[in-house]
Amino acid sequence: MDYVYGPGRNHLFVPGPVNIPEPVIRAMNRNNEDYRSPAVPALTKTLLEDVKKIFKTTSGTPFLIPTTGTGAWESALTNTLSPGDRIVSFLIGQFSLLWIDQQQRLKFDVDVIESEWGQGANLDILAMKLAADRAHTIKAICIVHNETATGVTNNLSAVRNLLDEYRHPALLLVDGVSSICALDFRMDEWGVDVALTGSQKALSLPTGMGIICASPKALEASKMAKSVRVFFDWNDYLKFYKLGTYWPYTPSIQLLYGLRAALDLIFEEGLDNVIARHGRLGKATRLAVEAWGLKNCTQKEEWFSDTVTAVVVPPYIDSAEVVRRAWKRYNLSLGLGLNKVAGKVFRIGHLGNLNELQLLGCLSGVEMILKDLGCPVKLGSGVAAAAAYLQNTIPMIPSRI
Amino acid sequence: MDYVYGPGRNHLFVPGPVNIPEPVIRAMNRNNEDYRSPAVPALTKTLLEDVKKIFKTTSGTPFLIPTTGTGAWESALTNTLSPGDRIVSFLIGQFSLLWIDQQQRLKFDVDVIESEWGQGANLDILAMKLAADRAHTIKAICIVHNETATGVTNNLSAVRNLLDEYRHPALLLVDGVSSICALDFRMDEWGVDVALTGSQKALSLPTGMGIICASPKALEASKMAKSVRVFFDWNDYLKFYKLGTYWPYTPSIQLLYGLRAALDLIFEEGLDNVIARHGRLGKATRLAVEAWGLKNCTQKEEWFSDTVTAVVVPPYIDSAEVVRRAWKRYNLSLGLGLNKVAGKVFRIGHLGNLNELQLLGCLSGVEMILKDLGCPVKLGSGVAAAAAYLQNTIPMIPSRI
Amino acid sequence: MDYVYGPGRNHLFVPGPVNIPEPVIRAMNRNNEDYRSPAVPALTKTLLEDVKKIFKTTSGTPFLIPTTGTGAWESALTNTLSPGDRIVSFLIGQFSLLWIDQQQRLKFDVDVIESEWGQGANLDILAMKLAADRAHTIKAICIVHNETATGVTNNLSAVRNLLDEYRHPALLLVDGVSSICALDFRMDEWGVDVALTGSQKALSLPTGMGIICASPKALEASKMAKSVRVFFDWNDYLKFYKLGTYWPYTPSIQLLYGLRAALDLIFEEGLDNVIARHGRLGKATRLAVEAWGLKNCTQKEEWFSDTVTAVVVPPYIDSAEVVRRAWKRYNLSLGLGLNKVAGKVFRIGHLGNLNELQLLGCLSGVEMILKDLGCPVKLGSGVAAAAAYLQNTIPMIPSRI
Amino acid sequence: MDYVYGPGRNHLFVPGPVNIPEPVIRAMNRNNEDYRSPAVPALTKTLLEDVKKIFKTTSGTPFLIPTTGTGAWESALTNTLSPGDRIVSFLIGQFSLLWIDQQQRLKFDVDVIESEWGQGANLDILAMKLAADRAHTIKAICIVHNETATGVTNNLSAVRNLLDEYRHPALLLVDGVSSICALDFRMDEWGVDVALTGSQKALSLPTGMGIICASPKALEASKMAKSVRVFFDWNDYLKFYKLGTYWPYTPSIQLLYGLRAALDLIFEEGLDNVIARHGRLGKATRLAVEAWGLKNCTQKEEWFSDTVTAVVVPPYIDSAEVVRRAWKRYNLSLGLGLNKVAGKVFRIGHLGNLNELQLLGCLSGVEMILKDLGCPVKLGSGVAAAAAYLQNTIPMIPSRI
Fold first, then answer.
1. Its Gene Ontology molecular function terms (chains A, B, C, D) (predicted)?
2. The complex's ipTM?
3. Using alpha carbons only, how large is chain D's radius of gyration in Å?
């Protein structure tokens, strides 16, 4: 059933789905269970409590919905807004584009602020719009924390500051799909109203669980929101929360135990240590790209992403060929360039349960591929640059000191 | 992480999620993969082709959506209908009730035909409605093939015959959650327009995949359907089918490989043999219930379900106590009575990857529990009745002859 | 790779290898590790400490050898005895026979005390031999605690009493392969010098670990024992115990983690509760056999085994056909009759991680098979007899109360 | 239960146990089975036939013994030789030393030919001994194909040539523990009489199976061999081979299915491609060592090993500190220097299911560690040297072309 066996491990460096740690694979290696027995609610209770920590919220209400990031988006929007509502949304890459497409199809009045791909959200225009919106017609700001297509991280704290500055009551809805559990994210501090991620990203689980967290203000808004919704309706969950049985429909038993194991590993490492590790991996990758003489798709340092790096290839190379060759010759999985940057960039995902030597193996592979394709990269140059930084910064593994 | 360990296997006899066969657990015991590599589309292609066989359709188009049965319902409705559309829906138990609730919340004009719980769909009333509907205001008939709450199987062939008799063009939407892969189901022959099931039912996988199959007529309807939908929109799938990459958003790699293994097992056994096995298990269960002197919640033989049996307990017993005791003392998981039949029935699920000795172990447990609770059941009586039937009907295991 | 797939679970009722609990399968689902890293010794230390508890010894020294029960036998003999040493050994069935064969091939002077198969060790003859052996020429008594071929449990306490009565210094070597972790076994109290079991028996692990425990007297004897040995030499282990690295050669990482999980489950249930559970399963099985009108191969109640029951079939039936049919039609694995009782008995193993409903499922299968083969067994009779006893004795599962 | 969790994969580069491929882990993720059912012999038959291919023999008889390499050694010796027999054995490192120790304890008359550690077997002395041995007092030549402690591969073909040249009938016993399935090994062509390996080496399984292959001449010798043996006696296996039940005692079901999967992967890749891959990994490692300015413990190119490289550290560094630091900081497992070379060398195992990017990740880790410890290694230098070679030699993955 493995149609495409290659010797050794697959080096999985797409920005999701990411590597699942062995203890999590183990935890999910199990038969189904009756989700109405006392065991599953007892487990669920711990999950709902603990999952709030990865959002850095104490006041939020989490929902673990059997869906993907796309479904989580829909859940965030339909529970808080009504058709026709004006929302401001930033278009900076393929995933923000897809979210905007969803917003439009869900019949919201989407006010798009577009940036060049490779740039972050244009907050100056947001400021203008907020300033102009005395009537508070803007009901929500929708922003992707980390645009996975271009490797751009937006400044959420600055968005919050603008809202506060203009005393604007718009909801702040954040796609944290490729950020939460990897980048610094502070739901309560930044006044985020809905934040969401998917299990297959930095949590390092299989796909299948959309994880959404709603602020008290968002819950309040959900009472008025007129968008039609059933499967994604938070209210069905809230009813079962009250009953203590938690699930309006059947959850994946395996993902529940997997989430338990994933959270345990994150807390054992320490969430801030996890974030610091992503910081190291991101920086090391960027140093390698620089050493190769290539450009980062991300145009300014303030937007550099610690979970994904989009590398611009020279014009005489098709970046899709980098990805194909990685897979066909080196058992390495890289991310394609999407849409506007198709053929121009390939992406190195460096998020989730990953360590430095894995990354260095990947970088050495990228060097060989670039050389395969005629790019005058000096073998070892990127690895050396990354290693020089890492060798100074990698901490001892706490459990092994 | 197993909060409630008990020695030996858990005897899982809820009507879903059901026992996962070992080869399927094995197939899913794996790391994530890049779903944009050539491997996953190659696998997906075989799945889309083979999954049609469990619907007995050649003209249908399947969708494997990362959701549950509730989401599959929503997908069936929103892709084929527009708000305000009149649909006829049968209310015969908790799951048909939940579907009707969804239909109403999705803003359809639901014409409910209600039966007493324990009875099947009232087709006489349907006939009258069809006869009266010269203007074809009825856009769809929604029917649950097998009502999991009461163990009632509806006669889909008769529904088709009525539609044909009255030359009525209404779509036929079927919830096959607890029937497909277990009961005789013939999408093409019966002219079903949308059929759906969930991975955790007779397919014997974990929860997380809604499996929907649409007839050409349903696909045609989807072009006109005005219900708002994004995550559940078939069109997004169809676009990617054409591209040959298949997935508009990230699928669960584990469920894809699991589905491959599950289908392989079903085809190895033979789908008709699988259905015959469910026939044996259902009949054996009913014989046991009869031997115990208890009543089946299902009121007539024509509605008897081969996937779930709802057993009516004597009035002096709380059926929830049967379920609690099963779990607490015998490591046996039974289904609760729901809503109108709460406290009055408990349910034995006998679907999915299950064999006769497993069922007999369950039945012997039920006998002890009933005795525990003061019900004058003769120990061994139900097992004897079931075994007398099974001993005459169990075939040799083909691979072992 | 499953050449002989049958639907549903295999009902594994051979007296070894036995069912592995899911948490143990999970614990072993892992990659290899460097056994010279600090992690493996840390784990090993806990195992060596905790494994003593299943022998009920505080003074014994355990050895976890990558071998089977046959290898564990060889380890027990060659470390404590010298070629030519006189040993007294009881022949009561196939496994004691095989051990005696090994003893003879290892060049010991084996004084065999034979009983009819179905009887226990003849302790009267032992008493005579001990009484006569004023010169202490007998160096060891070798006894199988539970003869797996006939379902006979010997009285070890009585053996110890005889040795004490005659103040005889012979070593007491005990094969506890199908007893330890299932039957009452008290190494220290009974003055057992070497006790041994295999991982695939009541510990409910895969095959591959021979578990041996040596008393201080046995360790002392090992210094003088002249039997040639290398792989099985305890001394190589003791050297590495002192170094704190524990392993003279590579252990199975998977079995080490599996043993950790298996011990954890046993301690969670409570060793005495585990033994009581085996008592229930054994008694229930014997009641069923009686209800069927069949004979237990074990001739007297004092020898009844709570881990395996050898059932004598009527003369017109070939017991091997019972076993074949069980597997071919019912996905049930029973034990064959061996050697002298081949064709005459089949065996029901009821040891390891097993609960009551699993056993009742098995018993209902046996009833059908016997009927298949023309034996006038009343269906349900054995199950009823077993259930009548079990319904009065099964305790609540402690973690679920 | 993971006492020493570190984020990301463990980089396992000890020369055994090695990385288990995911499909093999999956194949072993299973419950026990009755090994006396028809299924296990059917599986075993294919294993015994196919395992001969990894020895490149058609005339040999394989034995799959539940033991480790140490037990496989004992099996090879005791089945072919009698106490007092003169054998010639080469001492070139820790593992040949341990084998010689075993030979002596098994009471053979061991004629040791010693080389400096880092050199191969001294065949000149062997030639002299053979020349002098007109009386054929030498009964066997024992040689380690690949000395795992020093990374030295002996020339077996040359040994065979000498035996032929002197028409000497001595048996040729070969420890292939770290060579078979990784280095070129030709049992029939080289007239090897007993060859052996362990499951946890290049076969990439867990520890627990000693795999021995005996030539017809070795089987003949076993009829006369007077060494005492029971557990390791080939004759017990041969009896059961004739019966078609194959197993004199319980095998590990999991390892049997694991071996099936491991062989399937090896044959899919192609045994000669597997060997070529090891050739690439070995060469790449040596190029890195050279680029670092360090010495290979192996003194001449003719002895270079493609499965393990022992790297000599500068005198001011303790090689054990390299290993400790690898594990504590980089989640990298390297091999210690043993005995005479303790503190002086560390070892990189590059055998089993491993690919080039994994190795490059390891090499980049070694560079950082060496720098950590004050060794003036240029970061990236070894990786660059290895990559320059690999980039020219890695083939496309056949299944992905």
1. alanine-glyoxylate transaminase activity; L-serine-pyruvate transaminase activity
2. 0.97
3. 21
